Amino acid sequence: MDDDEFDELVSSLTPSSTAGTVSSYRxxxxxxxxACDEPFDDLVVCRGEYDSLELDxxxxxxxxxxxxxxxxxxxxx
Length: 77
Fold this sequence. Notes:
- By secondary structure, the protein is mostly beta strands.
- The chain has one helix at 3-12, and strands at 14-19, 22-26, 42-46, 59-66, 69-76.
């Protein structure tokens, strides 16, 4: 994903939370996931070399990258 695509995507989402090097954004406008073309629920951006996620529900996850960041597109199961 190039910088313009990433900036456009993030500007269309609602910031949800930031903890350390992990930021999450809620998809309130049903944007399609770039990996599977289905609407996703949240975008989680992991900027650290190592990040840990604590999930409170079962999710399907699509993965992408931007620069050295990992992008997780979550889908409720």
